[in-house]
Structure formats: C-alpha cells, structure tokens
Amino acid sequence: SVTDKRTGVRYSALVDVKIVVSTSEGWMILCNTPDETVRLDMISSLTIDRLMPVYDINLFTDIKPLHHARSLGTFYNARGTIGDKIVLMSEDNAYLLNNTYLTIGGDAYELKTSHFVSVPDDHVVAFRTVPCNNFITADAVIAVSLEGNAFVWNPWDTGGGAFEEPINTSERAKEPEYRVAPFIGTSATRSTALAGYGVALLFDIDNHRFVGWDGDRIAALKQTLYPINDPSDKLFSFNTGNMDVLAMVGTQFSNGAVYCFMQDGSKRHIYSINVADKTFKQEGCWNNVNKPDFDKATTFAAHSQYQTVYYAYQNKVYAYNLGSGVCNLALTLPAGEEVTLLKFCTYDNPGGLGTLTKKMDEDTANKFIARQYELVVASYDTANSDGNGGKVRFYKTPSPGTTLVAEGSCGEFEGFGRIKDIVYKEVRP
After folding, report:
1. pLDDT for 167-204, tens place per residue?
2. CA distances from 377 to 61, 187, 338 (A)
3. CB atoms within 10 A of CB 211
4. What sections of 123-248 are H helices per DSSP?
C-alpha cells in the first residue's frame, strides 16, 4: 500500500507472499554417520531451479540420538483434524517430525506414544499410506516393525484414532501368528484411478507367502491380514515355498503394479502384482533372471511409466526392460563409490498434483511433475574419512527407460551421510 503525499491518494494491491525456510520443501535424505547415528540431510527446493543442500538438521534437541536409520514415511491428507505426518524410523525408535523445521519435539512426538492405542515394544521401521479413489485422505496407513508385526490405522473408521493391535493374525486382537517382512506394497497412483478402497501387499516370512489387506471389508476384518489365493490362471503361486522377498517397489504403472524381487535359493525372480483392487492380479513373472550382477544386486527401483526396473551392485546401475528383455549397464560411477539406494520419489499428495502445481505457470508445473520420473541414485565414497561421503544424483529416464540422462545443474549434490532413504517433502498451497 502506497500513499501519494501530495494528493493523499492511497494505492493498494494484493500480492502473494510465500514464506520459505530451508526445510520447507525438497528431498529429505535419511543417513547414518560412521558410528550408525541417525542423521537427516536435505536438498531444499527453494524454487524448481534453485536447489540447496542442507546438512545434519538438528533433530535431537529434546531426545537422545537415534541409531541405525531405516526409512522415512509420510501421510499427506486434507483432513485438518489429523494433519500431515512425517515419520523418521530407526532401529531404536520412530518419531514424528515437525512439518516445517523437521525437528523432533521430545518424547510426545514418539510415533508409538502418539499414534498407537496400546504402546507395543516393537520398533517401527516401515510406514506407508494406502491410497484410494478420494481426494481427502488415504484409506489407511500401515506400519511394520523390526520384530515382524504389522499395524493398521484406518482414518475413516476411527475418526483419526490410532494404530490398534497387530494385524498379522486371522482374528482381530488375537496374538500374532506369523511375522511379515518390512515391506508394504501399495500403489503409487493417486486417487481416482484406484478402487473405492485401499489395498496393500505384504509378505509372511515364516510361511513364505504373500498376504493382503484391503479396505473393502467390515471394520473388524480391516484389523487383520489374510492369505491371497492363487488364481486359476496363475503365473506363480502366492505360496512361494521357501522363497524370501528382497524388496517390494510400488509404482503407478498399470494403476498399481508392485514389483517383488524374490530370492529362491541361488535364483532370483521378479513378480509383478497389481494392487489397484483386491483381486491382486498377477501381471508378470520373470523366473531365474539371468542378467549381469542381478544375483548380487543390493538395491532396486521400478519405473511408473515403463515396464522397466533398475538394480545396482557396487558402483554399477542396470536398467532392465521387462517387456523387451533388454538390460543395459546404464551407469557406472567412479571407482570407490558404492550405490546405497535407487528410488523414484513420486509425489504422494491425496489431492493429486493439481494442489501442488496450481500456482505455477505451465512450464514450471510440467518440469516439477517430470522430476518424479527421474531416477535418484544415492552413493557413498568408501574412501571418505569424515562421514560426508554421500552423494545424490538425478537422472532423466527417456522411453523406454533403459538409458539414464544426467539432470544437469540441478542433478548432483554431495556432502551427505551414508544414505538409507530419500522422500520428497511436499508443501500444499
């Protein structure tokens, strides 16, 4: 507002003012230090073309340091009474982070204390939303512990209550009957492409079988997992014999393909299971995959636009198109670097990308949307001596996804800890 002193006429205009701090938005980077102390770094997204690394965010002002970082989890929703959640998980404990500054506000922010009906002794290491076809919230949130128990929080049924008793049982509130792997297979598709209820895929490590959860059941049954029956035209059996699951990667491909990387003795297989609805459709099976270094791969990712998966061993990253069978050595990092994580940081807003991009011009919005289809490659320089050998690189993945193109000036950052997980922190207008 400006007043002309000569005439006394006052001129006013309305403008948008965006208050931004370094932790407002960007890629949260969960790391370990050399002594396995948890460390949180970030690549701050001040604008789409102005990215800034932020190192060693001061998490531990009110609690003792955590050790053995495991993963990050988010729950973005439009129900103001619940609020958005960001969860940091380690083998010591799991805590909610302050949504703006990513700090921990003491023991009140402990996940089990604040979001469990009864506080278990378990250590939560996985936390995943289960999307459905509405624009308000997720159908459920599932958490899995290091001890092999799974818990579900149904925001719709409980009015924003909490996680109840373990669901790895055939009867609600019964003692757990088996342990599940620390993976939760859900669709990365947002909202309308899914069924009216949520679906999640888990793996029973005691009985070597896939088990499911879906929101299309009465309230009591939503508090249990159940074995998935084989279809008549099965590509593989959901009862896997003696197999173990190495990783589950959810995508937007086919509205919800989850790629399961399986260890079968000395063999490795890839199963594609669709979780867009409770049929758990088997979409693909690649048995005894015989590709370079696949038998030794330590981290995996999968594309949401193409039927292409990625895996890494030491300093090499491979891209394997499951449709054509073509497998390329897509990236070789400098000698001495070890790939610690491959990931696509797809956006998770329940209202869809429109809420994230509505104040952007078209070109900026398109560039922002495209970044979720860039492969994030995290590595660590094994020769580093100060604990800051972590690097993050972003690569574009042109069709059919078997080649990687460096992002450029906004595509490589260093100085982080040893990276365990990366999740994009979203900000809704």
Report:
1. 999 999 999 999 999 999 999 987 667 888 999 999 99
2. 31, 22, 10
3. 21
4. 155-158
